[in-house]
Amino acid sequence: MDPMDIDPPLDPLNSIAESVSPTTETSTRATSATRRLYAISDLHLSYKDNCEALYALKPHRNDSIILAGDIGETAEHLSIAFAAYQANFDKVWWCPGNHELYTLPTKTQGARGEYKYKELLEVARQYGVLTPEDPFVKWEGEGGPAIVAPIFTLYDYSFKPDHIKLEDAVSWAAEENIQATDEALLHPDPYPTRQDWCAALVARTEVKLAEVVARNPGVPVILAGHWPLKPELAYLPAIPRFCIWCGTRKTADWHTKFGAKVVISGHCHIRRTDWKDGVRFEEVSLGYPKQWEDCRAKGLDINTIMREILPGPKPPAKGVDVATQWRRFG
User: Fold this and answer.
1) Running DSSP on this structure, what letter comes out for residue 32?
2) Within 10 Å of residue 163's Cβ, how many Cβ atoms?
3) How many CA atoms, within 13 angstroms, populate the side-chain half-sphere of residue 6?
4) Which residue ranges form the domains of the chain, and what is each CATH number?
5) Which of 31, 118, 142, 267 has minimal Cβ neighbours within 10 Å of its Cβ?
6) d(CA 316, CA 274)
C-alpha cells in the first residue's frame, strides 16, 4: 500500500485564492448567545474540489465552529477558510494540523517549524479566529456551558506497538513502505526534533488546561485538536503503521484528567464517534476529494459532513458499552 494514499505528494502552490476563493456574502453577526457548536477538519484546500465545496456553506448566524486542522498548507489556504467560516458563523476556532506546518519547496525557503506556526497565528488574528494561543473561553449555547479548548500537541511516534523501540518506529513503518510527508516537510525548528517540540507543546498545554479547569470548577471542557488523544483511535486499516504520526501517548488520559465532555480530532480521514469513560470522541474529517465522493454522489455537501458537537447526541446509559459509530456519510 502506497503511504501517500493518506498523505499524497503536494503540488507546491503559491496561492489558489484568486481562482477559487469563496465569495460567500458576510452574514449578519449574532446579537445573542450562540446556539450550536460544530466541528470539521481536514478541508485540504489545495484540492480544487474541496476549495469549491466552501461555496455551499450555509449561514449559521448564531452557531460556532471549530476547524480542527489540515485546512491546507499555506497562509492563503487559511485565509480562504477563515473568510468563509467567519462570514457564516458567529465564532470560529482553529488549531493546526501537520499540513499547515509544512514548509513547501519554493525558490525562497519559507518559515519552518514554530516560526511557520507563528505566521499562521497572525493570519487567524486578522480574521478574529481563536487559536490554541488565545485564552480558552466558555461557550454558553445549547448543551453548554463548556470551555472550548483548541489544542496543539503534535506527535512523538509513541503510538507504536509496545514491542517496537521508539527510535525504531520510523524504520518499522518503512518496512511496509509507509513514510509520512511530514518527514520531509514538517520541520521542528527551533527544537532539535519533532519529539522535542511535541513534549514542549504537551507540557505547556497541560498547564493551560489545568489552570482553566481550576478557574471553572464543574464546567466541562471541549478538547479540540488535530491528532487523536488515544492510540486506539488512530484507526488506519489500509496503512496501520502510519499510526506513529498520529499522536502521543502523553495525552491518553486527558479526557478524564481535564473533565472533557467531548474530544474532537481529525487527521485519520475516517469519521467516527466513540465513547470512552463516558466521554464522547468525534473524528470530524472531510478528507481528500476521493474520500468523500460517496457523500457527493448522494447529494451531500460540506454542511452535512460537519459534525454537531453541542448539543450533540444523547450519551449512553451509565455502564452501557457502545460500539464505534462509523460515520461514512457525515
Assistant:
1) S
2) 7
3) 26
4) 35-326 (3.60.21.10)
5) 31
6) 11
Amino acid at 185: L
* Dist CA 303 CA 297 (whole Å): 15
- Count Cβ atoms below 10 Å from residue 103 Cβ, excluding itself: 18
- Burial (CB count within 10 angstroms: exposed 0-12, middle 13-18, buried 19+), residue 194: buried
The residue type of 74 is T
pLDDT digits 0-9 by tens, 231-243: 999 999 999 999 9
> Which pairing describes strands 37-40 and 279-283: parallel, antiparallel, or unpaired?
unpaired
Give the C-alpha separation, 248 to 268, whole Å: 14
**CA–CA distance, 306 with 289 (Å, rounded to integer):** 15
Strand runs (DSSP E) across 105-239, as ranges? 137-139, 146-150, 221-224
Q: What are φ and ψ of residue 273, in 5° steps?
A: -125, 130
Report CA dihedral (25, 26, 30, 35) to the nearest 10 degrees.
60
- Residues 186-211: tens digit of each pLDDT: 999 999 999 999 999 999 999 999 99
Cα distance between residue 156 and residue 166, in whole Å: 9
